[in-house]
Amino acid sequence: MEISTVAFLTSSHSPFDDRIFYHQAKSLSKMFKVVIISSTENLITTIGNISILSDNRYALDKKKKIEFFNQSLSQFEPEIIICSEPLPILAALKYKKNHKKVKIIYDVTEWYPSKKNLEGLQYHKKILTFFKLLGFNIYTSSHCDGFIFGEYYKSLPFRFLFWFKKQSLISYYPDLSYINYQESKLKPGEICLGYTGTISVEKGIGNFFTVATTLKRKKPEIAVKLKIIGWCFNVTDKNSFDKLCQEAKNIDIEILGKQDFETFSDQLLDVDILFDLRDLDFENNHCLAIKVFYYAACGKPVIYSGIKAIKREIDVNKFGCFVNPTDTELISDYVINYIEHPDLYRHHSQVARKLAEENYNWEIIEPQFIDFISTFQS
User: Fold this and answer.
1) Which CATH number fits domain 177-358: 3.40.50.2000, 3.40.50.360, 3.40.50.880, 3.20.20.80?
2) pTM of the predicted protein model
């Protein structure tokens, strides 16, 4: 089988998702025609050698969504299909009935089922839903020809069940060409603390504000600014966030929504320290937060919850520190230590960027990704 076209199928990611479009698709487009088929928004376009076909009219109808995927595959006739979730695998399997040589790869980057799938359900229904979705995931995965894993812990169930299938670990390292890097230096008398991503108590927004107010109490002469780049998924999170903003006294707060991938790093240029103080529950503890690699590439010191998955991948203590996310008194002392020792801050900034350049960038792992896809040629 000679590969000419590779298709990406996703039912929950934007066609311009950083992993799918800016890394995997762009890399493969150097060798093949690439199409990204998504059900998250309405868009038909072509960028270079990448076609994008996205339609969200059937967001709540799984059967129609599968049919949309299947019809789109018939239009482009790919030899390899990379699926980001279990549902698109069903469409790929339907397409494969009439295209026997097609290879299906599951790119596993999320827990499925996850907490999001079970929110708001009563206990007994939560248990039933969990096992129903788990069974669905195992069923669809069993029909795949290979796996790509974004991180170690999420790979373990698949490595155990499908050890005999082709698989490769391709992490979330950033392409440095999209990072606007400038050497970070603290300005006397002020500090800018940054938070990006989902805004919720579970993801650490409450801890982040507590650190800021504690810092202001300990160092009233320091101008404390918060830069928040993120979004709330529901009304409860929005109300909690609004209350935190109202209660933060004598603190300058700048709030930005979602940013385009190509300009995201521009918004971090004036941030001094970046935070992720999420709860250390099972799911968070075993999720490799992508942001840490982007923060390092931007040359920013970080203060992070002691997440098990991150500890396995990168030593944050070389350019920041791991913390108990609720120990806000100690965390504020770490910030003060940077303020009082600007040489330490500058050193951590330089180390962060050096780690990104030498070990944690897409240019290093791109050949591995392309080679893995090429192994499906026969």
Assistant:
1) 3.40.50.2000
2) 0.93
